[in-house]
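Researcher: Please translate sequence to C-alpha cells.
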Amino acid sequence: MVEKSTSTLRRIIHIDMDAFYASVEQLDNPSLRGLPVVVAWKGSRSVVCAASYEARSFGVRSAMPALRAERLCPDAVFVPPNFTRYKEVSAHVRDIFHRYTEIIEPLSLDEAYLDVTSPQGEASATQIGERIRADIFSELGLTASAGISYNKYLAKIASDWRKPNGLFVIPPSRALEFLAELPVGRLPGVGRINEEKLARVGVESVEDLRQLEADLLQKHFGKWGLRLFDLARGIDNSPVKPERLTSQISSEDTFPHDLAIKDLGPQIRRIASTAWAAYEREASMSNNFLARTVTLKLKTSDFRIVTRSRTYSSPITSVEDLISTAGALLNRIDLPEEQLYRLVGVGLSGISRDSPVQDGLFLD
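Model: Translation complete:
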C-alpha cells in the first residue's frame, strides 16, 4: 500500500499516441504502411522527429541524427515532417479528451495527462481510457496507448508498458510490488549520469533504492534525493496542470570522455539540432511561438558551469541560425585553452507568442 493516502485520491490517465508523426504519414499515404518510415529531413544536420515501429526494430529512435538512422536502416523511407498536419490531428485528439475531462495537461502533440478523478457517470478510469482509445481509432484510424494510476509518473510508466495500442493499470494496492523490480532508470529524472551515480552506491533497481534512508539519499543527491525517496515508494502528488506554458527548450549531453574546446564544434551542431527539433515540435502547437535568446552551457571537467547567451530583437528562424549563434557563443568562452569539458547544452528561451519583429539587431 502506498504510504501517503492523499495520492490514492486521484485517477490519472496518460495517453500516448503510438509513433504519432510516422503513423499520421502512414495513415495519409497507405503505400507507407508496413514500411520503415522515418520522419526527418535528410542531411548531416537533421535529426529524427519520429520513426515507425518497423524502423524502430532496426534501432532507429527519435532525436537520433538522421545519418545514423540511414546507417541503421538503409531501406528506411524518409518523409519530411508536416507539423501543420500533425497539429490538426492532435487538435482532434484533444477534442476527444475534452469529452471526458477538462483537466488536461498536454506534454506534446502526441501525449497528455488527464485527471478523471471527478465522477464520469459510473465509468471507471479504465473504462474512460478504453473509450478514449476507441474514439481515437474510430475517428482518426490511429492507435494510442494508455496508462492509468493514482499519480502522473506511474501513469506515464504504465502507458509504455503495453505499447503499442495497449492499456495498463497500476492500482495503489499493486504499486510497490510493481515498482520493486523496475530498473531505477525508469524513474523520472534518472538519466544515464544519475543512473551511474546510483550504481556507485549499490542501487540498480527501485527495490535497491527503497532500502536507502532519506538522509543518505539527501547527502548524495541533495533535494533530488528526497524526491527519489518518495518515487521509490510510489509517492508523487504533482497535479495535472491544464495550462502548461513552455518558458525554455534545451538539449544537453555529457560526453564519454572530456573534450577540448577545439573539439566541441560537432557536438554543438548535434545538440543544437536536437534542441531545434524539440523547439519545432513545441512551436507547432502554438501560434507565433517565438524564441529570441540562445544560451550555450558548458560544464568543465572539474564540474564548473559556464554559460553564454545572446538575445535578438527578432526570433530565431532556423536550425542554421541556432547552430551559428551557439558557435559564436563558444568563441566568447575565455577559459584557458587546455581546459577540458564534459558537457555541452544549447537552449532557446525568451519565449513569446507575439508577432515577430522584423529587424535583426542584437539586444545585448
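Researcher: Any highlights?
Model: The longest helix spans residues 265-283.
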